[in-house]
Predict the 3D structure of the following.
Amino acid sequence: MSAVLLLAQAALPAAQVVFLERLVDQLSAGQTAWGPLLGLTTVVGAMYPLGQIGLAATQRMGLWLRLRYRTDLAHAAARLTPSRLARADVTTDLEASQAATAVMDVVAGRALQVLGAGITSVVLCAVVWEINPVSGLLVLAALVPTVLAFTGISRMEARGWPTVAAADRRATYATEQLVQQRPGTELAVLGTGGKVADLIVVRRTEATGVLDRMIGRAMLWELAAALATAALFGAALVALVRGGASGAGTAAAVAGTISGLNAIRLCGYAFGTIITATPQARIYRRFVASVPPTAPQVVVRDVGSLELDRLSFTYPGADRPALHDVSIHAERGEMIALVGVNGAGKTTAVNALVGMLTPSAGRVLLDGRDAADLTEPERLGHFGLLVQEFGKFEFSLRDVVALGAPEPVTDDAVRRALASAQAESFTRRLPGLDAQLGQQWGGTGISGGQWQRLALARIHLRGAGVWILDEPTSAIDAEAEREIFSELRRTRHERITVVVSHRAWTLRDMDRIYVLDDGVVVQQGRYDELLAMDGGRFAEMFREQAKK
Ligand SMILES: Nc1ncnc2c1ncn2[C@@H]1O[C@H](COP(=O)(O)OP(=O)(O)OP(=O)(O)O)[C@@H](O)[C@H]1O
């Protein structure tokens, strides 16, 4: 259908020239010329509706293409592993790819326009060639400056886009801090939103400056192309007049040359849009290709042992290791704890354990097997990780909990997980599992501790072989905290549990506590043993708390 429309549209200007020549010929010969008049009326009458139908068809095609690009992008983003998400270039590319989908959708429509205008130009050229070959050639040659100009513009934009994308990303991030409910409220209370607005303006000004320079240069390119095209048009007209064609031929050829130049200009513009979109499309394609489809993650529920074997790690640029010769082990059914002051290395040890960073020395062993031999998704499947900055996903209650496991889950499993995480008492007051969370969506607002219980419910639902809980009850009241830990103890035999905690009482039932100081394990043992060691780091940290 689109192809038929395209061909019909492309033939109209040439048909116009033929009918015009016949009309002038027959009128000059004193004939009534009903045939050419009817032909011209049909051709001119068909131009507008065919143009409109063609436009609507390409717009609809663009719409569906954009959906496809965005679907592929969403799936590619969902396949990013934690180690890749930590890289600045990956997030920049992701956002540039997102922006590219809005440009790429027009490319297919423009490609059809190029094809149509190309056909129009060639057919017109052939018709004008019949009247005057030199004019015909000059009409076709007018394509060259436009194509050259847009190629130059595209190259220039390819150089400018990365800077614009990086500045845009920072501005978008800062804007989100202003408009998202939690950070936005904090800034409003502090009265310092204006400072963030200043940061946005700096980045937007940077991006606007680059875009402005690009537009200025593009204008120069286009101006040069327009001048060259005008010169070629003039030369085509001179060739016609000097060629000594008949009056009818000259009139038709002049009309044809004007239509031809318009078609060529349109062709050049559409071609230019395609090559202008090329740098962004390239970023999109590179990004999507860089995360090829993989098998979905499989949660490993049965893990017999876990070991960090003489692990060392230094952050890039740091002058001392964040972990030095750290050895930790745990068997199925055990609960162990990592303790230490801020900056002691607990989070670094957890990140090394799950594979978010690569140690400079030492190994992580899962059931005696070197975890470095596993793919990142295979390795992550062993863990249920509750981090300090857990996600507050504002979806439905069911979805928020179901995010704990990659496979589909039943409502019963969601309810059991909510009960284990002591989240049942407050979720029972919501209108069911379909309840939307988050006031900004017209849903229910819930407290920080309630969000943390939902994050814990995800870990219960996941049921992985190793649970790593980094301050799992930091925002939760004392009563619920006791119930959460008693549930963890009751179900401990099903897994290995690693807890990072600053609260003395939560450490009492641990099978082993590892005390980290400056990246080194300085003590290990049970709570009472460690507390009894006078002058030990653990006793220094927890003696006051233990008295309460
Ligand atoms: N991405 C990073 N780049 C460079 N240094 C880092 C990075 N993350 C942490 N560090 C440094 O490594 C050391 C250990 O940090 P880590 O986050 O593991 O401590 P922690 O014991 O988890 O602290 P907290 O109790 O505050 O969570 C600190 O000196 C910290 O400043």
Q: What stands out?
A: Residues 300-382+502-548 form a domain with the Rossmann fold fold (CATH 3.40.50.300). The radius of gyration is 35 Å. DSSP finds 18 helices and ten strands in the chain. The chain has a mean pLDDT of 87.
